[in-house]
Design goal:
By secondary structure, the protein is α/β, with parallel strands linked by helices. It is built from six helices and seven strands, in the order βαβαβαβαβαββα. The N and C termini lie close together (10 Å).
């Protein structure tokens, strides 16, 4: 990724599917003076995603694509990204898998946050797997998005101790708090 020059912030799109807590957190981060990004667009795969309210709240352009026809929707998204001059895509709880073609076209400029210490527990139900396997530690990872699910180069990780009393729900809450710190830190690392 390129080094930032001057005060020009990189136009960023956030892709969401749910509550949008990482989206909200990235918006707050984008408002800080020294941040390298501005959030100009949110794309949701679900029209009732709670996170869309933050787009309204912070006056960010939003678009919804249901991915019934992935190829078609991805084509429309790429046109929109180009039109909006988007440089970076941040996936934040986006529950759709982007195609190889889409990833290739936006190569090296898509990052994701994942609630495990990758390469451990790719995909869904990470907290359940952590508890079931009686892991002592879990965490979260920010990584580049590649064609292989949750397999891109890791930018940053945060290791978190699993308490004896933790269950998947309590663990999810605990990890999410760390995700909110890790995502901005990883973005700063990329562009510093």
């Amino acid at each position: 990724m390129e080094k930032l020059t001057g005060l020009k912030k990189l136009k960023t799109a956030v892709f969401i599917s749910g509550t949008g807590s990482n989206f909200k957190n990235l918006i707050k981060f984008s408002k800080i003076k020294k941040t390298p990004i501005s959030i100009n667009l949110v794309i949701s795969s679900f029209n009732k995603a709670k996170g869309l309210k933050y787009a309204d709240q912070f006056n960010i352009k939003k678009r919804i694509f249901n991915f019934q026809n992935t190829k078609n929707d991805e084509k429309k998204i790429l046109i929109l990204l180009k039109k909006e001059k988007i440089y970076l895509i941040c996936l934040a709880g986006f529950m759709k898998i982007l195609s190889k073609d889409f990833i290739k076209k936006f190569n090296g400029k898509i990052i994701n946050i994942h609630p495990s210490l990758l390469p451990k527990y790719k995909g869904l139900n990470t907290h359940h797997k952590t508890i079931t396997n009686k892991d002592k530690f879990t965490g979260c990872s920010v990584h580049y998005v590649t064609e292989k699910l949750d397999s891109g180069k890791i930018i940053m990780q945060k290791k978190i101790k699993v308490a004896a009393k933790d269950n998947p729900e309590s663990l999810a809450k605990k990890v999410l708090k760390h995700e909110h710190k890790l995502y901005p830190a990883a973005i700063m690392k990329i562009f510093s």
